[in-house]
Each structure stands twice: as structure tokens, then as C-alpha cells.
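Changelog note: in this version the structure field was regenerated for every chain. One regenerated record is shown below for reference.
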Amino acid sequence: MTASRAKQYSQTEIDKMRSQLSELPDVTNERLQKKDVLESLRNDINALMTVKGYTLNEVHTHLKNFGFSDVTLRDLKEITADKKKRQDKRGAGKSSGDVKASAAEK
């Protein structure tokens, strides 16, 4: 039985591997996570619902059919609720005098 020797590498082989590694393509945009996809599609989803009249369930169904298999209704509710929260905050700038005036008019 012969003893197994550990493989040895030359500096030339290391340099070749280093060069080959540096030539590998960037896959950052090929490995996006669900939150990244939802953020990217947020405006499109909101436009479908506000401009084109789609419901959240319909958007969800279409996204699943398009291959976005792990998207949930809850995910869609969260990203569309964020827009509503931002709009509510903008509308919340009314002063208490405006509220009292509105109440007095009724």
C-alpha cells in the first residue's frame, strides 16, 4: 500500500485560478430575494390596482402565474398598505382648527 501525498499547487496554477475567478460574471441581479422583487414591483402593483382596476387577489394570481411562486397576499397587502400609510401621513397635516371648522359646518 502506498502513502497518499497531498496535492501541491504551483504559483502559476494559483494565478490561473485567480484569473478565472475574476472573470466569473456578477450574479447579484440574478439572485434577488422576495423583498427585493416586491420593492421593485411596488409601483407597478399599485398602478394595476389604482389605475387599471385590478384587485389584490387578481394581482396575486397573476404574479404566481408569472413564476413568482413564493409571493403571498400578505406580502402584497404590506407593500400596498405602505403607500396608504404614506398618503395618510400627508393628509394628517390638518390642524385642529380645520377639524373644528369642518365639524361646525355640519
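Spot check on this record: Residues 93-106 have pLDDT under 50 and may be disordered. Helices lie at 11-22, 34-50, 56-65, 73-91, 96-105.
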